[in-house]
């Protein structure tokens, strides 16, 4: 519903005259409010089942108008209908003489919903870099708001570089001027870097940030968990994103803001997001095109949520990446080695720590500089404040991934022994380093064997109900789909498995 309504200027809300305003009505109306839709037709249906009672229509109307007022929906037209019979749909009903207003179709044909998007600052999200040959380079897209003329100064966001419009090309030929809603190709007076997802702007500057506050309408059957990674798509731009905080959830029946740590399917909340890179945004109330986004699950590719940007969290605007004189390549050259992450993942008791210890010792014998990050050890220090909820496990993986990336940047080999049960979090860790620097090692020892070993007595406690949420028993473990190395320690000795990993490192020129 939210996806379909995102480009609408008016919505028809259908309610049953017998039931009146129900939870679904409130949820849909709240989404309409978040989407900035201010024109609503309340079609009170099944009037025949309440005897065409004008009093019942008035009661439903009053209830909805109260809700609309709370949500800031300013223009509501209430129409009693019998949809199967066509009463007040296209022809005025003779069975409800007490209603003298327009039919649904008459109102839709007469209502003025036009907004003045041409009067807002110029925004052109670049959809395509048009370069048919070496002599031409244009930037194509649909003007989201404002207007532009040849010779006018524009700024490329998020880079902030300024230039001038040289030519405006449209499907019907070259023009001197173009406005909101038109599809154009602009050529610029200077050879500057512009890519798909960038935005050409003029007038008041948009928001450029990697930290956002937004309302989310959650769609996915899998609950939202802070710390889990998603792909954020806004207009023509996309980047990785993490929901860092759920500020509150909207209780649909009362419109109250409730404390929450997650959102389930069909729930609406207010969240903070952290992005992998800065994107160009507007507040949704100012621009639907620049203020709306979706979140996509990177594993299932399902659309998980629709978002409406509220504001930029200013932290990112004051934090800049510092260029260092000594970089990873220099440090790796000094150590005479190729840095990488060896990420051991598997069930508790699979043999991750044992195997990582052996590999660490063999790397030392080769004279390589390595560091072992063991999950249990880290929970005595940097992760001592974290528990074992889904969100805390994700934060545990995120911190370890950041530390491992720092070791790689120092020219070292980082060994990580961590259950890390979720594929999305392991993919996040992979993307913290460059291509070829992440080696996923699935210690694929079967659950039955891990439970037989049970070196820490954790499986016994989990089976007894003393350790809820234990991975492999109560909580799932998402096995890697394409790990670089797979080891089953129920079939191989630890020493043999270690040598297999060393051989892989030698064959792929890490040693």
TrEMBL record:
The keyword Transmembrane applies. Keywords: ATP-binding, GTP-binding, Kinase, Membrane, Multifunctional enzyme, Nucleotide-binding, Nucleotidyltransferase, Phosphoprotein, Transferase, Transmembrane, Transmembrane helix. InterPro entries: APS (IPR002891), APS_kinase_dom (IPR059117), CysN_II (IPR044138), CysN_NoDQ_III (IPR044139), GTP-eEF1A_C (IPR054696), P-loop_NTPase (IPR027417), SO4_adenylTrfase_lsu (IPR011779), T_Tr_GTP-bd_dom (IPR000795). Residues 1-90 form the Tr-type G domain. Its EC number is 2.7.1.25. The active site is at 420 (phosphoserine intermediate). It comes from the Bacteria. It catalyses: adenosine 5'-phosphosulfate + ATP = 3'-phosphoadenylyl sulfate + ADP + H(+); sulfate + ATP + H(+) = adenosine 5'-phosphosulfate + diphosphate. Residues 338-488 form the APS kinase domain. ATP binds at residues 346-353. GO terms for biological process: hydrogen sulfide biosynthetic process; sulfate assimilation. The chain crosses the membrane at residues 403-422. The keyword Transferase applies. GO terms for molecular function: adenylylsulfate kinase activity; ATP binding; GTP binding; GTPase activity; sulfate adenylyltransferase (ATP) activity. Pathway: Sulfur metabolism; hydrogen sulfide biosynthesis; sulfite from sulfate: step 2/3. Proposed to provide activated sulfate for transfer to Nod factor. ATP sulfurylase may be the GTPase, regulating ATP sulfurylase activity. APS kinase catalyzes the synthesis of activated sulfate. HAMAP family: Adenylyl_sulf_kinase. In the N-terminal section; belongs to the TRAFAC class translation factor GTPase superfamily. Classic translation factor GTPase family. CysN/NodQ subfamily. Sulfate-activating enzymes, NodP and NodQ, may be physically associated. This is Adenylyl-sulfate kinase. It comes from Bradyrhizobium guangdongense. The lineage of its organism: Bacteria, Pseudomonadati, Pseudomonadota, Alphaproteobacteria, Hyphomicrobiales. The gene is cysC.
